[in-house]
Design brief:
The protein is an alpha/beta fold and 377 residues long. The protein folds into two domains: 2-170 and 359-376, Glycogen Phosphorylase B (Rossmann fold); 183-356, Rossmann fold. The protein has helices at residues 14-28, 47-65, 82-85, 98-106, 110-116, 119-138, 147-156, 183-189, 209-219, 237-249, 266-271, 287-294, 307-310, 325-337, 339-356, 359-376; strands at residues 2-6, 32-36, 71-75, 89-93, 141-144, 164-166, 195-200, 226-231, 255-259, 275-278, 298-302, 317-320. Strands 2-1-3-4-5-6 form a six-stranded parallel beta sheet, with helices on both faces. It has a six-stranded parallel beta sheet with strand order 9-8-7-10-11-12, with helices on both faces. Helix 9 packs across helix 14 (325-337) and helix 12 (287-294) crosses helix 15 (339-356).
Length: 377
């Protein structure tokens, strides 16, 4: 089978790694794969502008490649116009919906929204949700990562359930493993000998970094040797607000914003941590959680989206309610004071990642879906 994967994801980003790893699985199973799209560097005025240029380049390539392709796998943005570019069947990968994000943000009190949220970004969400809806309408099948996203696609975007398949995200369990060496990152960040809590993700508001930072600041008196490392691209007024918050709390020396991290360096960054925290407001299946699990790290995560589907509370990690600062504080304290618990949770997390979420397993599920669609055409 000849499969075209269409994306504007940047090669060094987490999403870009997802498409590269998927293409490798498909090739290992005897299929011809062509990645259609153009990676552009992140311009000074933001990645959205770069994606516009990348999309135009991808659409031109589709015209040239169409005769050689049996089935396309596309990211959500490309699905909008895809039926105008080809008569071939295509699958849309939709890890989570903007409709869900909008609903969860609306549930937050206005003072909290105004304090933390970048309103320009927020007012773009309905537009992005409409793009997702139109993309889903055009696709022969939509692959999403969790039950919450599946329900949103059916309810908010009015897609019949038979066209939606739930296949969780995947992780390279060879690349991400407990033997990764975090010493270079500890030296680079000046955190050697400290208890390290790591959070990876952006935008910081949706990933719960504000509430994680407040909870962390509250426990510093009891755990003065702890440090919080936040990895993610610094972008927009939303993120400037958290820098201001950290400064006001007087913990600028304890909370380190390391900036964006190339995906090939994330295994060692994960290895530098003792606890991986991802207390996001809204989520599909977070690949960064799976990557930390594969590295054998104890997880602290919010019970939102697909996270409870990959972590059993008390077995692979501890789950908290999103935005619940006292509960986040309590669970952080439990993990910081008990190295035996961290080791047990990390070992269980590694076993679960290998057993259920490796690319060999998830890739074959996607491949089986593709085979069925082509045969039924």
């Amino acid at each position: 089978m000849n499969i075209g994967i269409v994306t504007t994801s940047f090669s060094q980003a987490v999403a870009g790694a997802k498409f590269n790893e998927l293409s490798n699985v498909l090739r290992r199973n005897g299929h011809s794969v062509r990645i259609i799209g153009q990676d552009y560097p992140r311009f000074a005025w933001g990645s959205r502008t770069a994606r516009i240029f990348a999309s135009a380049a991808a659409w031109c390539q589709i015209r040239q490649a169409d005769k050689l392709i049996d089935l396309y796998i596309v990211d959500d943005y490309h699905g909008l116009f895809f039926n105008k570019l080809t008569t071939k069947q295509f699958i849309v990968l939709l890890p989570a919906t903007y409709a869900t994000i909008i609903r969860k943000i609306k549930a937050i009190s206005f003072p909290q929204r105004s304090r933390y949220l970048d309103f320009l970004q927020y007012y773009l969400y309905p537009f992005l949700a409409d793009i997702q809806r139109r993309a889903c309408c055009n696709a022969v099948r939509i692959i999403t990562t969790c039950e919450e996203a599946s329900e949103s696609i059916q309810k908010d975007y009015r897609i019949e359930g038979g066209r939606v398949s739930i296949i969780p995200a995947a992780v390279d369990t060879v690349k991400f493993n407990p033997s990764c060496d975090g010493s270079r990152w500890r030296e680079k960040l000046g955190i050697t000998g400290r208890k390290v809590i790591l959070s990876i993700g952006q935008p910081f508001f949706l990933k719960g970094v504000y509430h994680l930072a407040r909870a962390f600041a509250n426990i510093l008196k009891a755990y003065n040797d702890a440090v919080l490392v936040v990895a993610g691209e610094k972008d927009g007024s939303c993120d400037r607000k958290i820098f201001k918050l950290v400064s006001q709390m007087g913990v600028s020396d304890k909370i380190i914003f390391s900036g964006s991290c190339p995906h090939e360096e994330i295994p060692d960054l994960c290895a530098s941590s003792d606890i991986f925290a991802h207390v996001s407001l809204s989520e599909g299946t977070a690949r960064v959680i799976l990557e930390a699990m594969a590295c054998g790290k104890a997880i602290l995560a919010s019970d939102t989206g697909g996270t409870p589907e990959i972590i059993s509370n008390g077995n692979e990690g501890l789950l908290v309610r999103a935005m619940d600062v006292p509960q986040i504080e309590e669970k952080l304290g439990i993990l910081l004071q008990d190295p035996g618990l961290r080791s047990r949770l990390g070992a269980n997390a590694r076993i679960r990642a290998e057993k259920l979420f490796s690319w060999d397993i998830i890739g074959k599920r996607i491949l089986s879906l593709c085979d069925g669609l082509v045969k039924s055409e």
